[in-house]
Amino acid sequence: MSLAPDPLEARGRPERPVLCRHGCQRPETLGHIQQSCPVTHGWRVQRHDKIVTTVCKHLRDRGWEVLREPNIPTPNGLRKPNIVFWNSVQSFVIDVQVCADMRVATPNDAHERKIDYYNTPIIRQWVNEQSGKPPVISSIVMNWQGAWAQASYNTFKALGGTDELGKLITVRMLEDSVRMYRMFCGTGALRNVH
To answer: How far apart are CA 49 and CA 157, in angstroms?
Structure first.
């Protein structure tokens, strides 16, 4: 009688796939843990929200009027950019994302997708009505390894973000990623018990 091999027993043998210990039936890679495993979803949301909170505080400290996650009605349903903010001169729509690090989808690609998603006449009009100014649509996008989309970092710097604050945001995101990995490894793994 032959028992099916435990996918966790493949560790150290590259010819055998190592499936997620939590039963996702996906290869257990750092990318899977950091970006798509259902077990880490709540931790990913917390990691994202900490970035949004840090940026909102930075903007408020510099005198910007800030709306966090406003509901903007559109014909395609509600849109909820992470941050809409303005001062006496200009307004912005910013959405935050920690993306994967795949060759086919870089942080710059994710940045462009965010702009395409929020740069609609209805969203622009809504922000203009709130702020009295046509908005700049941008993002704060970095991958889970800490590499920012260049256009995102340029916007961050234009808004008064310092290199020190950019490093702080990046380090906190990386610390949350390490914490997520440790929690993933420490939670009850689903293993075949013989």
So the answer is: 20
Residue 140's closest CA among 61, 71, 79, 58?
58
> Could you tell me if 7 and 22 are in contact, meaning their C-beta atoms sit under 8 angstroms apart?
no
Question: In angstroms, how far is CA 32 from the centroid of its own chain?
Answer: 14
pTM of the predicted structure, to 2 decimals = 0.84
Residue 4: phi and psi, rounded to 5, are -65, 140
Largest CA distance in the chain: 76
Contact 113, 151 (CB under 8 A): no
Closest CA to 36 of 103, 80, 99: 99
Assess whether pLDDT exceeds 60 at residue 185.
yes
| 91-99 vs 83-86, strand pairing mode | antiparallel
Sign of CA dihedral 21, 25, 27, 29: negative
Number of residues that make up the chain: 194
**pLDDT tens by residue, 64-112:** 999 999 999 999 999 999 999 999 999 999 999 998 887 667 899 999 9
Q: Which comes out higher in pLDDT, residue 183 or 8?
A: 183
**Are 19 and 28 a contacting pair, CB within 8 Å?**
yes
